[in-house]
Amino acid sequence: MSIIQEKSVNPDLPRRSGEDTQPTEGKNSCGIEDDLSVGEFILHYQPKFDLSSGRVSGFEALLRYDHPTAGVLSPSDFLDSLRASGALHAVERWVLRAACFQLSQLQKLSGQSSLGIAVNVSPSHIIAAGFSDEVHAALAESELPACCLTIEITENEPIPDARLIAYSTRKLSKAGVKFSLDDFGTGYSSIAHIRDIPVTEIKLDRSYVAGFPGSKTDTAVVAAIIVMAKALDVRVVAEGVEREDQLEALQEIGCDFAQGFLLGKPMSPMELYKTLAPSFPD
Ligand code: G
Ligand code: MN
């Protein structure tokens, strides 16, 4: 494996045989439904800032699909197709390995060994047999300490079995892996998950952050979530911070971390290495 994986090989995906592999035209017709190997999965990294120190504490690995004709697509364009094709877990497994590897390289190149990496994983994958072994393997092969990995539990599918997810996450949590509830306040997220799953962090959905501090309702929700999180000793990450007034108000209200276009857009591994390790060759 080269030191930079600007573009990593595709994960081992199921492929429909005997079908036309030409991408189709039109909205969301990125061809992924027809053939998951016409393009290439890549990762972009978005910085997460510690609001008390103002420093980057780590990065979230964001999945993208680089399609030969449609360009770089976001998960909203292909996640449903990926789930329907049965390949979601295989792709998430690849994300876990690639992100741990690239972050470990970044730690070595930048000399910043405390940088963390957050990876999005669907609840159905977390409870699947072998998930804990996948996580341990990704950490071992990248030589990344468990405490540098945060698994963001995505809220766009229901948590299938609360007892199973609690069991699976507790085992990994004991080994040092951190868990975070993504898009908190929307989708299938529930306050019960904070009680049942050993989460160290919740990510405040960007729809609340968007109306903060202008909207009275959004401000009340943000304030209430921060008070609850503090009482439960859970950190809060504000997603989608795009404006100065949001950032200032979030700092004032005691939000712990922030992510968003104002602070840093998602970047390719090459951009990341060049930003954090300026001596990195072109
Ligand atoms: O739900 P989750 O936080 O995992 O979603 C991450 C997605 O949000 C990424 O695709 C990323 O590009 C996008 N994103 C990151 N920061 C911002 C932002 O400030 N505004 C908006 N609208 N989207 C953002
Ligand atoms: Mn996320």
Major sheet strand order: 1-2-4-5-6-7-8-9
Number of helices: 10
Extract low-pLDDT stretches. Answer: 1-9, 14-31
Residues in helix, % = 25-40%
β-strand amount: 15-25%
Radius of gyration: 19 Å
The major β-sheet equals: 8 strands, mixed, barrel
Ligands present = guanosine-5'-monophosphate, manganese (II) ion
Shape: globular
The tally of beta strands, per DSSP, is: 9
Secondary-structure element order, as H and E? EEEHHEHHEHEHEHHEHEH
What class, by secondary structure content? alpha/beta
Mean pLDDT: 88
Q: How far is the first residue's CA from the last residue's CA? A: 18 Å
Summarize the structure in words:
The chain contains ten helices and nine strands. With 282 residues, the chain is of the alpha/beta class. An eight-stranded mixed beta barrel has the order 1-2-4-5-6-7-8-9. A hairpin with a 3-residue loop joins strand 2 and strand 3. Helix 2 packs parallel to helix 4. It starts with 39 loop residues before the first strand and ends in a 6-residue tail after the last helix. The N terminus is likely disordered. The structure holds guanosine-5'-monophosphate and manganese (II) ion (MN).
